[in-house]
User: Fold this.
Amino acid sequence: MELNLQELKQTEFPVPVELEDNIAITSLSQLYNWGRRNSLWPMLFGLACCAIEMIATASSRFDFSRFGFEVMRATPRQADLMIVSGTVTKKMVVPIVRLYNQMPEPKYVLAMGACASGGGPFKEGYNVVSGMDKYLPVDVYVPGCPPTPQALLYGMIALQRKIDGQSIANGDDVPWYGVGPAEPTPVPVLGPDIIDPRQMDMIRRQAESAAMEMAALGQRELPAATQMVAAKATTQEAVAAAPAEVDSDALNFVLPTGGTPWSEAEDIREKRRLRALARKAVRATRRAAETDEG
Assistant:
């Protein structure tokens, strides 16, 4: 993109008229922001119908390459703009956050469409996330269901304006210039429902307070008659669960065939096993014969 010196001449120091086309006095932040705003590389992935509009925006009719967005990368390690285009399900939010963590700083997130912004028509669905901003820091929201290519272009221009307002001297504007590496965004845990690890302390505190409230309420004392019935039932269960003594006469019992009951049962199991082996051998012989015929 051609450098327009007129855009950079926002300084208190005047420039001679004869040198305005050759010299520009500006700040380092403005020069740095100009390079970033005109070389954003979106990540090439889509989720639902909004992805079709994103593809149309990159086509020749709308051509967002004139704004510096033309280099769409298929790997997060070479992209600095994530366009979340489509319905975000609880199953899909896990890889989305993982891809975001793999993107280098500085990086931005654009929520395209009603689904990525707040859940859209599927907001009350059991499997849809009600807004991508619950898990990632969204910079620009593009409304619509789906938004038109013109709306996506306007959202990209809004992101460029946001970049223009950032200052290298302000750590809140450019957190990637902080001390040490940035902390990765916690990847949600997918179980019976999606859980944000950042809310685990809150969930644990709520569970502990609920347990303390239940303990403070106590248990209602049962009536005397009910206590007697419960004690009797417990006694009967304990007697039934106790091992019964083996009668010596049962051990010496002899069947009319001359054997004991347990030896008779062993004979029956052995005969069943032999019959099963015989059937298995017959089936194997039949399969071998069919193979030879074939």
Remarks:
- The chain has a mean pLDDT of 79.
- Residues 261-293 form the longest helix (33 residues).
- Residues 46 and 52 are 8 Å apart (CA to CA).
